[in-house]
Amino acid sequence: MLDPKRLQQRAAFFRAIRSFFHGQGFLEVDTPIRQPLLIPEHNILPVPSGTHSLQTSPELYMKRLLGGGCERIFQICPCFRKEERGRLHLEEFMMLEWYRRDADYLQLMQDCEELVRAVCSDLGSAGFPVSPAGEWERLTVREAFRRYASLSVEEALRTEMFDLQLVEEVEPHLGQKKPTFLYEYPIQLASLARPKKEDPQLAERFELYVAGIEIANGFSELTDPVAQRARFEEEYALMDEERAGNRKMPEQFLAALERIDSAAGIALGLDRLFMLIAGETDVNRVVTFPAAGLDR
Amino acid sequence: MLAASDLRKGLKIQIDGQPYIITHFEFSKPGKGQSLYRCKMRNMITGNQFTQTYRSNEKFEKPALEERKMQYLYNQGDEFHFMDTENYEQTFITREQLGDNVRFLQDNMELDVLFFDDKPIDVTLPIFVNLLVTVAEPWVKGDTSGNDTKPVTVETGYELQVPPFVVEGEKIQIDTRTGAYVTRVKE
After folding, report:
1. pTM metric for this prediction
2. Which residue in the set A85, A163, A214 is minimally distant from B36, CB to CB?
3. What DSSP assignment string belongs to A197-221?
4. Residue A122, domain CATH
């Protein structure tokens, strides 16, 4: 287990996050952790729980709350993703998600800067690998691949090398001088994000990087239920038959989208952010109990 | 068959007909992207190393590895002969394959021999071995030279540093992982 001093630091970390959002007028919410139907995402494997699954993210319910009239909401909750184990991955991890009605992804980037600065000022930023002060770097996916990858974005997508090139050639360069927002993702890599008005081939999605490590994924929400249904069908098409099952659609979620004009939401991995603030390099060293098999 | 999600440090897999052991492992997964498994591997026969990133749909064969309990018998030049303690079959391993392990081989010592495709490729020594000191400077009581250690030679010809009180004809315990002196052994 974590030593008592680190436990206190972890508690102070959660307190600082909550205090930031309460100060910004956000409502703290909680939603079902066992879900009858998850977002169809072919790259994320859920952990089954009887007739339900453990949540991979609270996203569907958070957006239903937006549809139900909530303006600004946040949640801190455990999420579960099968077979994700490593220095930066836990099968059970702590997620922070926040959502704003009538906002876009640029507003979320600003939230990120303010949140991290606030937490660093509460806990001290001595361990944080880069200074959170000043304006953070913003880099489009296209430009990042042009600078650092051996293939262009288009070639990488066509040859199914996008993820590999991103992880091996691009990510190590991101967030090394100051935190970096990697933004404007190809539309096929953002199944719940809104396309950019000026270029519908790009999605208003971004990821936040610190010292080469991805911390958060945010986007302007796709609020068109017809387009969202089509994107879910595309996701199901990428799964094998067993996983796709009867291709059930989250109907209540799609219905809630009808009641949202525009919104933006983001998921941030709290164990990773705390790891960086604590000056550690392995998430197993900052959670109360490390993953099974690593508890020495 | 092994799946990519089985990959981890210490796992042995077969690539192009050769056994490899994973020496460094890192899981990565870009947000909303696919799982990637970065492995640094060492060929268990040649010692050659390489790094490769695998994707979740890849499959691997388990190498045909087997450990057998054997007894070390004798050496003839660079060939070191061993006998299976169950079926008494004999085989030999070359000095090159044994590497530094040669320093601790005693006649009749029992150890684990690793076979790949019925050919011996490696041995696992006991962690501690007791060896007789065959050459040592005598210990002069009240020695004020201030040296903490002195060199001695043990029965296998291996030379190491030991505390000054160790004398010829004594047995000492050695840690085979580091090659270092542990303690004197009273018989």
Report:
1. 0.83
2. A163
3. SS-TTEEEEEEEEETTEEEEEEEEB
4. 3.30.930.10
